[in-house]
Specification:
Order of helices and strands: HHHEEHEHEHEHEH
Structural class: alpha/beta
Low-confidence stretches: none
Number of helices: 8
Helix content: 40-55%
Bound molecules: zinc ion
Number of strands: 6
Shape: elongated
Strand order of the largest sheet: 4-3-5-6
Strand content: 5-15%
Radius of gyration: 20 Å
Length: 202
Amino acid sequence: VTYPALERLIAELNRLPGLGERTAARMAYYIVRSSKQAHAPHASLAHDLAQALLGALEHTHMCSECGIWCESDVCNTCQNIHRNNRQLCVVENVSDVRAVENTGVFKGLYHVLHGVLAPLQGIGPEELKLNRLVERVHAQGFEEVILATNAHVEGDATAMYITQLLQPLGVKITRLASGIPRGGELEYLDKATVSKAFQDRR
Ligand SMILES: [Zn+2]
């Protein structure tokens, strides 16, 4: 028998993507048990987790330039004068930025869409603020825009849509090479595969 407070914790954890109810329940039981057994309840996992969640929410902002999560108005990557400001890499999520950064092959700037076009779920060009991307490419004079949306139907459709939007600006537009397996998401691929997809972009 699980009581309402614990039931709620399981339900909230179950809202996280890719977890499932069984894993959510295991995590909830683990958090409560280990926290009850902790020597100092105020330094327990439950307490630290709650603090970390609220802290992240309070201090994290979306970079006004690229959309990366950061703690100031403009992120460190956008402010870094050693980055190549002629190349822009467009990704779905901040976790994709992490995957690309881990390879070390890309030294340019990023643009995070925070999603992909999904008309059935009501996510259109406006929801992704694609006009901001066009304005940015126009204003900052990038020479190359690398479309690194994931290799699934929505990712391809989004890349095609953005290509049409940017083409009139005369900028070189490339797409990551097809070395990425179908349905493969950057964040789950190994460094070598992501590096190769970058080098072989067309
Ligand atoms: Zn930024």
